[in-house]
Design a protein that fits this description.
10-stranded mixed beta sheet, 3 helices, two-stranded antiparallel sheet, alpha+beta, globular
């Protein structure tokens, strides 16, 4: 791990954890660079995450933000990570895919599926609720379901579901 005036470079997962730990207690702005791209940006006590398997969102949007043990995941949808195009499928397929992206972000921050404590879910058609609910329950099978709000919304790109989440990840 190389520590500079305003940056930390990590070359593998083990070193990355050390870099994140070191940056967490540094007073200045730091970045953690992994795999040739910016995965985590530190500003004060906040960590800004980009999805590990897709390019950063345009502008300064983050896929997730961590502040202490609280981890906030921005709205995720059924995106094909290889083509960067939205995947159209059944509500069950789109829900499972979307939740898997949220899980990947939580894991990237050092958490696990059971750390997800709240989801806000947007359905393009509330008539899809039974299939959505079934897929949601299957995803969290064996775990206490997180608190959830589900609302109807007009979603872009013809997708059927978008979900944002909050996780509590203890160090």
């Amino acid at each position: 791990v190389v520590v500079g005036a305003a940056w930390i470079v990590a070359t593998d997962e083990g070193q990355r954890q050390v870099a994140i730990f070191a940056a967490r207690f540094a007073p200045r702005r730091h970045s953690v660079l992994c795999n040739g791209g910016l995965d985590v940006l530190m500003v004060g006590m906040k960590e800004y995450f980009n999805h590990p398997e897709r390019p950063p969102a345009p502008g300064k949007l983050a896929s997730a933000v961590r502040c202490g043990p609280w981890f906030y995941v921005s709205g995720q949808g059924p995106l094909d990570l290889k083509t960067q195009e939205y995947r159209s499928g059944t509500i069950e397929e789109e829900t499972a895919l979307t939740l898997s992206y949220i899980e990947r972000l939580v894991v990237q921050a050092g958490g696990k599926k059971s750390d997800i404590i709240k989801c806000t879910c947007y359905l393009n058609d509330l008539g899809d609720f039974p299939g959505f609910h079934k897929a949601f329950q299957q995803f969290f099978a064996g775990l206490q379901l997180p608190a959830r709000t589900t609302v109807g919304a007009t979603l872009l790109h013809g997708i059927k579901v978008e979900i944002d989440a909050v996780a509590y990840i203890e160090s």
